[in-house]
Predict the 3D structure of the following.
Amino acid sequence: MTTAQAPAWSGLPTGYFTHGRIYDPNPLANAPESPERMEALESRLFVSGLEDFVERVECGPAPRGVVTLAHDEDYVEALEKASQGDKEALARFEMTDTKVGPGTFDAAMRSVGAVVAAVDAVFSRTCRNAFCAVRPPGHHAGRARAGGFCFLNNVAVGALYARARWGVERVAVLDFDVHHGDGTEEILAGREGVKFLSLFQWPLFPDRRIVPAPENVVQSPLEAGAAGPEIERVVENEWLPVLADFRPQLMLLSAGFDAHVEETMAQLKAAERDYAYLTRRMMDAAAALCEGRLVSVLEGGYSLRSLARSVTAHLQTLMRP
Ligand SMILES: [Zn+2]
């Protein structure tokens, strides 16, 4: 009798990459992208007992030379100056939903730092896969602009870093946040060796979307009211065939949980079960195509209860054999 041998990497832990920088640039505005989001995740991680089984890594800021793989140098400089209160620099960030405060630059650099560390971990084999619990999110940040609570594009830097540092020829970025990852699309469109797949409610914020989509971008817009079966259709009919054909050596997830039915910011109707399904299918693809190398990065998710439950379902699935 022969039994299939599990690959050695499958015994490695799931990494939980985070940074302790709590920042609230706009406490009076009661913004939905709030420090309470991270508290909700931490609390659920503890109560669920998952905390004991993940490899927790506290991350420092990414090197500036890594951040500029995806962003213009003068934009990164302006963000730093704006965080220090420089009036001229602050004028560049005059948006109601994307306020810069004293802690913004440090937290944004550390969010990228977490993704970079997670990419290193799945290639150096200290973790089999990873979840980056980070604020601020990143997928609306373009090459030289902030937007939608995002300042630096965590996944776009991660993808370009994997190519630069680890010599990876093909990286896939998969975005299931309810909002279109317009910043990621802007940075990665037309880039060699990178594929960007994004499902999102449409029409909805942001109104930026490249039409027709560039060759390395797959857009899967969903109508308001779409639920699990429609998400499943996108994954099975659009994402998996593209992945099988592209054969990525690393998969990055832009993991927003704001398509949840309890979210008021959008009108999709996903549930915890759908996030577990999506995670499982991405893990299966990663196991078949790239020795399980999957790095998931938190984007949106603003209803604190459903965010905490959905991330738990996601993390629990990532930890399964
Ligand atoms: Zn979102």
Q: What stands out?
A: Residues 177-179, 256, 258, 299-300 surround zinc ion (CB under 6 Å). The longest helix spans residues 104-124. The CA atoms of residues 69 and 91 lie 24 Å apart. The two ends are 22 Å apart (CA to CA).
